[in-house]
Amino acid sequence: MDWLKIREDFPVLNKKIEGKRVIYFDNACNTLRPNCVVDAIVDYLKNHPGCAGKRSSHYFSKETEEKCQEAREKLAKFIKALPSEIVWTKNTTEAINLVANSLRIKKEQNVVCSILDHHSLLLPFYKRCSETQAELRIVECSKECTIDAERFAEKIDENTAIVAITHASNVAGTILPVKEIIKIAHENNALALVDGAQYAPHKAIDVKKLDADFYCFSMHKMLGPALGILYGKEDVLNELKLFMVGGDTIKDVVYRNGQLLPDFLPAPKRFEAGLQDYAAIIGTGAAINYLKKIGMENIEEREQKLCKKMMRNISQISEVRVVGPIDVKKRVATFSLILEKTISPKDVAEYFDTELKKYKIMLRAGAHCANPLHYFLGMNPSKGEGTLRASLYFYNTPEEIDIFTYELEKLLEKVK
Question: What distance in Å separates the CA atoms of residue 265 and residue 331, rounded to the nearest whole number?
C-alpha cells in the first residue's frame, strides 16, 4: 500500500494551519473524511435532495431511497450481517440507549458491564437498572487494564439479563475477549451487546462468528459522517419494546370507534422513526467502499506497525507511562499516557496545539468519557486529573510519531 498516496485523499493533512503542519492524533474521537465521502454527501445535497421511503413518489425520493438501501446492504455485508439487521441511529450512544430502554429487565435480574466501558455504555444501563431496581455489576480489570473471560464468568449468572461490553477501550486500547464473554452470557441465557466504536475502525468484524445479539459502532470514527449503527439479530430486534415511534415505523394506523390501532413494521424500520439523515447514510456507503478498497487486513497490519513504533518511542521517555497492554497485539492504536510530572495533560495538549513552532499536534486530554476507569487507576477527574491521549489511524506515519515523542520529551525536560 502507498500510504503517502492515500494521505492525499485527506486534504487537511496536506495543508498548513497558521503556517504549521497538521499532525492529527485524535482519531478515537473523530477520524478525518476522505474526498469520496465528502463528494457523496455533496452529490446528495446538490443532485437528489429528497426524502427516502414512501413519503414522496418523485425522482429525488426514488434516488435517495435507492442509495440509502445500497448503503444499508454495503454496511451489512461489511460486518457479515443481513440488511434487515441494520438499524440507523444518531450515534453509538443512541444505539445503546435504544437497546437499554427497549429490553424487558426485571427487578430480580442484573446487568454486567466493565470498568473499561465508556460512559455511553455504562450510563444507559445504570439508568435502566435504577428504574427497574435491577443490579448493575461491574467487572474490574488488571493493572495492565486487561480483563479475561473468567472475571466475567464470576459476575454472570442465571439472573443476568444482558452483558454489555466494550470491544476495545477508548482509554487503554485493550481488546477484550468478547467472543468468549458472549459464549458465557449465552450459556446463562443472557443477551450480549458489544460496543464496537473503538474496534470497528481498526479490524474486520464478523458479527455472526462473534454471535453478538447486538453490536454498535459509529461511522464518524471510521471515515464516515456522524451516524450510528445498531446491528441486532433479526429475531432479537423484533422482541424489543418500541423505543421511538412515528412516521415510517408503521404499516398503518387505523382509527376506529374513537381509538388508534397502529400496525408497526418489523425491524429495522420499527426503530427508525421520522426523517433520517440521508446525506450521512449515503456518505456511509462511500466510507464503506473506501475501507473495502484499502482492505481491513491492510489497515490492521499498518496500525500494528504504528503501534510498535509508538510503544517503542514512549518506552524511551522515563516520565511517561502507557495505560493498557504493552503487547500491541492486545490493543488498538489508542495510547493514553500518564505523565509522571506535575503538569496537566490538558496543558500539554494545548501546548502541542498552539505553542510548537512547526506543528499543530492535535491530541486529547482528560478522562475521555471514562471517568470510572480513571478513578480506578488512582486519578481524580473532578480535579482535572486524567491522561494525555494520542490515537492513531492508518493515515498517520512513523515520522509523525517521532515528531510527537520528540516534542513530548523536550517539553517534559523543561518541567524538570
Answer: 40
- Mean per-residue pLDDT over the chain, rounded: 96
* Residues 366, 384: Cα–Cα separation, whole Å: 7
Residue 354 sits in which domain range?
Answer: 3-27+295-415
pLDDT of residue 397 exceeding 70, the answer is yes
- Closest to 81 measured CA to CA, from 190, 254, 209, 247: 209
Q: In this structure, is residue 32 part of a structural domain? A: no
pLDDT per position as a tens digit, 327-362: 999 999 999 999 987 789 999 999 999 999 999 999
Select from 358, 362, 352, 355 the least CA-distant residue to 20. Answer: 358
Helix runs in 226-295, H state only = 234-237, 278-294
Domain count, the chain: 2
pLDDT score, position 416: 67
pLDDT in tens, 201-217: 999 999 999 999 999 99
Identify the helix (H) or strand (E) that includes residue 137. Answer: strand 135-139
199 within some domain: yes
Measured CA to CA, the distance from residue 390 to residue 334 in angstroms comes to: 6
> According to the model, what pLDDT value does residue 57 have?
84
Same domain, 10 and 64: no
| Per-residue pLDDT reduced to its tens digit, 371-382 | 999 999 999 999
Please confirm whether the linkage preceding 124 is cis (ω < 30° from 0): no
CATH code, domain with 193: 3.40.640.10
Residues 180 and 314 in one domain: no
- Is residue 235 scored above 90 in pLDDT? yes
Burial of 163 (0-12, 13-18, 19+ CB in 10 A): buried
Annotated active-site residue 129? The verdict is no
Whole-angstrom distance, CA of residue 83 vs CA of residue 363: 36
Residue that the C-alpha cell 487507576 belongs to:
377
- Let me know if residue 110 belongs to a domain: yes
For residue 341, give the CATH number of its domain: 3.90.1150.10
Is the pTM here over 0.90, yes or no?
yes
Looking at the fold, whether 302 and 287 belong to one and the same domain comes out as no
Contact between residue 264 and residue 236 where contact means Cβ atoms under 8 Å apart: no
Active-site annotation holder among 29, 36, 51, 369: 369
Same domain, 223 and 330: no
Is a pLDDT exceeding 90 seen at residue 404?
Answer: yes
